[in-house]
Amino acid sequence: MRVKNVSPQLMKLLEDWEVSSAKVKKLEGEHRRWEYDYVFNVAKHNTGKFYYESPDKGRIDLTPDKDKIASIEDRKHWENGQLVKFKGVAGPAERWYCDGQLVTQVDVNQKQATRMLLPKQNQGANIIDGPLPFLFGMPAQKAIQRYDLDLKSLNEKTGKATIRATPLWPADAANYQLAEIILDTKTFLPSAVRLIDPAGTKETVFVFGDLKKNSRSLLPDWLGGNPFKFEDRSYKIVTKAADEERAEQLDRPNGKIIQASGVRPPLKPSAEGTGKTAPANGAKSKLSTLPPDTVPSIIGMDHNKAKEILQTLGYKVLLKQGSLTNREEQTFRVERQQPDARTKLAEGETVTLWLFIKPKEKELE
Asked: Are 211 and 27 in contact (CB under 8 A)?
């Protein structure tokens, strides 16, 4: 894989970030999270705290921000710049724990905890190979292998740098198509992170504050026990097996990295289809600005999300078997659609979706 050359200015910034991050043994702070849904024009708001302990322990607490319920806010579309009105709602109460070997996602409302064993490749210092490494300041050389990086701005007076990262690894591209990091060049800690989902229909923004490095009072209110391990037995516990295949995508033993555009196998057009191939990372949707009775682009979306969107717009949905894939992050995502995006189609008509499937999966109806 050809690694893009970065400017000396950006490389110096990445190297300084790496050196500074190596000195962080503990980190805690407050954060706010906004999730902007461009399909339903809803903005979910959360506040919370996060905690990190080197090399591989972390915790994120998310609390619903009830002050934002029913509020109306304007925001420019992340891609086309058009003004979009969002209705504010309180985001769900969630907690995430990582004790170095086990990641637990806790749904407070459903009283359910989902546990996932970290593959060996991601344990220890390699936790930066996880889906959101921007708090940890990965090694500079790994950063330029993992992302197509651009330094969008650097303001020496404010001490802020904005870095845009386009993922090259398939496991990252399955979670987001674009990330922007605002880095404090005095502390080399992120002030904010913005993520755009693979379909381009959701924008998630994290803003960090009151950051404390190497504080002795990490989780001072925790009375005994392990603050990075969820142990409430009143919750329903669901355990998922380690995704070893995805972990192997992150860093092959020979150092070869697979680009996101290489995830999908060659398409085998169905006789019923149009024969068109899907974009490598999914189409960037403009659902919020579509004219009435117009089919949106839902290529690259999870089939449940795609079906929900189309049914909300008044269409019937027919699911068909598409190309085979051995990639977990691709399974049951939309490979292609008929009619094509931006086609005029009346409510009540049918949109057919071809999905990537695993070998031996039965055709979906």
From this structure: yes
- Residue 279 preceded by cis peptide, ω within 30: no
Rounded Cα gap, residues 10 and 162, in angstroms: 10
Structure tokens given for 136: 């940890």
* 3-class state of residue 317 by DSSP: strand
The answer to whether 179 and 193 have CB atoms below 8 angstroms apart is yes
Query: What confidence tens digit (pLDDT) does each residue in 298-335 have?
Result: 888 888 888 888 988 889 999 988 888 776 767 888 88
Q: Scanning the structure block, which residue is given the tokens 């996932």?
A: 116
* CA separation for the pair 130, 118 (Å, rounded): 9
Residue with tokens 């905890």: 113
- What DSSP line would sit under 53-88, residue for residue? ETTTEEEEEEEE-GGGTT-EEEEE-TTT--EEEEEE
Helix, strand, coil share (%) of the chain residues, nearest 5: 15, 40, 45
- Strand partners of residue 317: 351
Closest to 351 measured CA to CA, from 316, 308, 300: 316
Q: For residue 60, what are the contacts with CB-CB under 8 A and spacing of at least 6?
A: 31, 48, 49, 50, 51, 94, 95, 96
Q: Where are the beta strands (DSSP E) in the chain?
A: 26-37, 42-53, 57-64, 72-76, 83-90, 94-98, 102-107, 112-117, 147-155, 160-167, 178-184, 189-196, 202-213, 236-240, 316-324, 334-338, 350-357
The residue type of 46 is: N
What domains, with CATH codes, occur in the chain? 8-250 (2.50.20.10), 264-357 (3.30.10.20)
Q: Give the whole-angstrom CA distance, residue 190 versus residue 352.
A: 43
Q: Could you read off the pLDDT of 212-261 as tens digits, one per residue?
A: 888 876 555 444 567 888 888 899 988 865 443 333 333 333 333 333 33
